[in-house]
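WARN retry 2 of 3 for item q-0093 after timeout on previous attempt; input resubmitted unchanged.
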Amino acid sequence: MNDVLEQWLSNIEARLLSWQHSRQVVVLYAETSDGVAQYRMRVILLDGSLLQCVERVLQLSDGLFTEKYSFHWQRPDGSLICRWDNAPHHLEIASFPHHLHESDEQHVLAHEAVDIFGVLELMEQVLAEKAA
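OK item q-0093 returned
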């Protein structure tokens, strides 16, 4: 087993479980093999919304490289709040392949690369504004 990758997965799960907005965390899978770690988790928030998380990282000689990510946040009725991902299908976006779908699939914005920790910070800002 790779200690760095195992620790990375452990940190993510611990953060989601301890996040103040989490009601339930479901780990669909979390695995490492041959310098690769990946997971798929679902987080049901206290407000009933759902965050679906997918990340795949590679361990390189100079650290971890995020090969793939998607963080899909939706309302209880299933409608999209936003999704951060790096699927390579929006060549027109300045931050290609990193982008944000906001409110619906067609509203695509440039966005810097993010990981689960950055997404939780962004979501906390939105949730704080909602609560105010």
